[in-house]
Amino acid sequence: MPKKPIIWIIDTSVFLNVLDVPQFNQDRDLLLDEFKKRIESKDSFLLPFTTIIETGNHIAQINNGNQRQIYAIKFSNRVLESLDGEAPFKTLAFPESDQLKNWLADFPNNAQAGKNLGDHMIIKQWEEQCKMFEAYTVKIWSTDGDLQGYECNH
Questions:
Q1: What pLDDT is attached to residue 2?
Q2: Is the pTM of this model over 0.70?
Q3: 60 neighbors 72 (Cβ within 8 angstroms)
Q4: Is 66 helix (H, G, I), strand (E, B) or coil?
Q5: pLDDT of residue 1
Q6: Which option is the CATH number for 6-152: 3.40.50.1000, 3.40.50.1010, 3.40.50.300, 3.30.930.10?
Q7: What's the CA gap between 56 and 61, in Å, rounded?
Q8: In 47-150, which residue ranges form alpha helices assigned H by DSSP?
Q9: Would you say 53 and 12 are in contact if contact means Cβ atoms under 8 Å apart?
Q10: 32 and 16 in contact (C-beta within 8 Å)?
């Protein structure tokens, strides 16, 4: 049986490394090698709104104002490229209000278990992509142990 194409949902930990954001780039070389291999394998990449927001928040907290500006520009350019279809990843849409209501209904149980809202929402978007793209294997790409191992349709 031929291998299914793979869709990767990119977590904040990976996007920060790709952007080379100081203090969040310790896995950069390894992740860039993986990214290159996955691009060559014709894998697809999705950038959730949660990853965009969390990455922007981390950049805004950089202590050095010059570095903060440099990485904010780099970040903004990469997200704009994604929105324009020019980056190796596509941006997932911000959820509609009914969708967000459904996600929030499940959040208290996950919060009780120690799972943060950003991870909860990435998992919810992963679940949706699993249903929408049954012909693809859908995975979350993260260096965060709480988000590793999510894979469907394999």
A1: 64
A2: yes
A3: yes
A4: helix
A5: 60
A6: 3.40.50.1010
A7: 9
A8: 49-60, 65-83, 97-112, 117-132
A9: no
A10: no
